[in-house]
Design goal:
The protein has about 180 residues and is α/β, with parallel strands linked by helices. It has helices at about 20-30, 60-70, 85-95, 120-130, 150-155, 160-179; strands spanning about 5-10, 35-40, 75, 105-110, 135. It has a five-stranded parallel beta sheet with strand order 2-1-3-4-5, with helices on both faces. The chain binds flavin mononucleotide (FMN). The site of flavin mononucleotide (FMN) has 15 residues, from helix 1.
Length: about 180
């Protein structure tokens, strides 16, 4: 088990997703002292409702909160939809605004497209507002526009693999510097 536990979140629910491939590649490429684990519960979360935020929160919400609480850091890779953050991802973040699992937590925000900019900026703004620590040097844009979603191919691409490895090392360093 590595010294740094990083949870990877893909903002896309597509079965064959380039952002999913990026997270899967991060799982495979994690350096020896880092473990990256993909969170796959985004589709199971109910729509956020402040009325049921606390005691009545459902199992998927409690599981999300526990997963985030146990993580040292997060990697989020998300598509842009209509210049915004996908609703399913924002929904997940809304569930932890009040419960606070992201407070002071280092987060790397990956962008798999050179065309998309608004969603990345919006995500950084939301995370910062939630008091997460967006680690800029670990927040990379990968020029994967038009690439087939294949984690093995991404891991075999020296430039992509190096960028992901370096980002994970920067994220781990940010965790270490806060301990
Ligand atoms: C409803 C919808 C809206 C989109 N809006 C944008 C957009 O505003 N800007 C952009 O760069 N790409 C946009 N895209 C393209 C997606 O960001 C792109 O297909 C991305 O690779 C999907 O990621 P995924 O493979 O992980 O699902 C949109 C796609 C969909 C389905």
């Amino acid at each position: 088990m590595g010294r740094f536990r990083i949870v990877g979140i893909n903002g896309s629910l597509r079965r064959v997703s380039i952002n999913g491939a990026v997270i899967d590649a991060a799982v495979d490429l994690a350096p020896g002292d880092v473990v990256v684990e993909g969170y796959r519960g985004l589709a199971d979360l109910p729509p956020f409702n402040p009325d049921i935020e606390d005691a009545a929160a459902s199992e998927p919400v409690r599981s999300l909160r526990q997963t985030l609480a146990q993580a040292d850091a997060l990697v989020i890779s998300s598509p842009e939809y209509a210049h915004g953050v996908p609703g399913v991802l924002k929904n997940a973040l809304d569930w932890v605004v009040g419960s606070g699992e992201l407070i002071d937590k280092p987060v790397a925000v990956f962008n798999a497209s050179t065309r998309a900019r608004h969603a990345w900026e919006s995500l950084v703004e939301t995370l910062t507002t939630m008091s997460a620590v967006v680690v800029r040097e670990a927040s990379i844009t990968l020029p994967l526009d038009g690439r087939r979603p294949d984690a093995a191919a991404l891991a075999a691409d020296a430039a992509v693999a190096d960028a992901i490895r370096t980002a994970l090392a920067s994220l781990a360093a940010a965790v270490a510097s806060r301990r």
